[in-house]
Amino acid sequence: MGKTKVLNLSGIHAGLVLLLVFLPGQILGQTAGPTTYTIFMTAVEVKGGTTADKLAPPPVNPKDLSKGYDFKAPGEADKSNPQRWEVSSYRFDPGFVTVRQGDTVKFTAFVVNGDEHHVRVNDPDGREVIAETKWNRGREYQLSFVAKKLGTYHLTCSDHAPTMAATILVLPRNRGRNEG
Known about the structure:
The protein is mostly beta strands. The protein has helices spanning 10-22, 24-27, 62-65, and strands at 36-51, 69-72, 84-93, 96-100, 104-111, 116-122, 128-136, 140-146, 151-157, 165-171. The protein has three helices and ten strands, in the order H-H-E-H-E-E-E-E-E-E-E-E-E.
């Protein structure tokens, strides 16, 4: 008869428990202190189009629904194809970021579409953290702020809101045993 070997995992389990107790931030990907995050962002225009013989244009002009939408009716979108119509919307990509309270958020944004964008950052109370500034197509811009408050910060283009907006969610910083 063959011998059966039994592997005792209690020592491994005890070691894992000790690691989780004494190093929770490092194990779970949390940092002990504030971190600087650089987020590379793009300002883009998403477009779609078809022809009126395939699909009727929208019954309501999308421009009347939101400043973030654009619409070119049949005859406007393509002079050589009078049936063609197009819709578009502006956005920031990525549109959602999560950081911890006290972290520095640095946006490096490149504007691909739209001649001009007036952007600002507001904190969870609606106060401007970064005053409105103008961004132009084909240029790179940088914004930076410290996420002091818990909650949702908003990066918004006033020319193309509400579709051209990004959300920065600020979570509490979990404190390790030795941080108080």
